Amino acid sequence: MEAKPQFHGSDTAAVAAFYHVPVDEIVCFGANVNPLGLSKNLKKDLAAHLDLLSSYPDRNYTTLKKVIADYCQILPEHVIVGNGSTELISLLIQTRKPQKTLVLGPTYSEYGRELDLVGSSIHTYLLKESDQFHLDIHAFCEEIRKGYDLVILCNPNNPTSSALKMPEIQTILDCCREAGSFLMIDETYVEFAPDINEISSMSLISSFDNLMILRGVSKFYAAPGLRLGYGATSNSQFLQDLLLMQNPWSLNSLGAYAGEKMLQDQEYIRKTRDLILSERDKMCTEISKINVLTVYPAYANFVLVKIEKEGVTSADVFEFLIKQGLMVRDCSSFKELGGEYFRFCIMAPEDNKRLLQGIQDFFA
């Protein structure tokens, strides 16, 4: 019997080849990318500025940092830009070289990969299904007090879509400060939250020098190929250490220009938030009506679902849907998720309707 591989959320080509489905007929609900695609305004703007590729970017990215600072309502001197948030995750971990690190489970796997490269001892704090994967702040702080050089949070978290609110983050930051721990928060999905200010920790940057927040444009701005990420910290010495470690001109000229424009595209931001918030509510409401499925509160642009029907696996659901050209994320690769789960991101309304019908048909 042919072994079934595990697929990343965006591995459409590999999935198409394995299941003999035309790749151009697959709707990918696994990549968590904005279904609106790249902004039309940005496309026109970039096409008119291709000559930027003939010049080196500003080594300090002064204009881009100012735009990011305005967007996040922080100071430009607290901003660093990079070749995607992945580069900044790597730089942060390589620079701090933590001996002991506390991460959540389940969460984004890239943290663990980078920590392994510097030989950090990783302790995973498990989110409980019984708490709807919401972090128990007091228990988590008790764990922090045991002594960790680095604490990593993803907020909203991937793959659970759960989120911590500002007062909870502040409690964790106070605890980290007392324990001598540095806190990294990955806010990749924060712009999809119902109330961004309720979830984002950007307003705490100036008050805590043991904090760094990372974001990127891959998901919300549908630009994973641009490789633009940015971070914020008020720890000036740490920021200088990061810049010393970072290769010069890490972000290309066109990428820097694109960042300046996309973060100011209010029409695109509004359309995206209107679409995601509306469609997410509809999908969660309708899928919750299927009595053998549990839908967890979602703050990101994706939703985690648990299968409660005996004998049915996430692979069964994946295979049924992929034959209809609908590719969800089989979550069996997240080792900390005990049970059968799948995840889907919010797409265009007509695609969401197809997915909903497919899920309803499977569990009918």
TrEMBL record:
GO molecular function: pyridoxal phosphate binding; transaminase activity
Keyword Transferase assigned: yes
Alphabetical keyword list: Aminotransferase, Pyridoxal phosphate, Transferase
Keyword Transferase belongs to the record: yes
EC number(s) given by UniProt: 2.6.1.-
InterPro entries: Aminotransferase_I/II_large (IPR004839), NHTrfase_class1_PyrdxlP-BS (IPR004838), PyrdxlP-dep_Trfase (IPR015424), PyrdxlP-dep_Trfase_major (IPR015421), PyrdxlP-dep_Trfase_small (IPR015422)
Cofactor: pyridoxal 5'-phosphate
One Pfam family hit: Aminotran_1_2
Highest taxon above the source species: Bacteria
Family annotation (PANTHER family): HISTIDINOL-PHOSPHATE AMINOTRANSFERASE-RELATED, THREONINE-PHOSPHATE DECARBOXYLASE
Family of this protein: Belongs to the class-I pyridoxal-phosphate-dependent aminotransferase family.
Name this polypeptide is given: Aminotransferase
Gene source species: Coprococcus comes
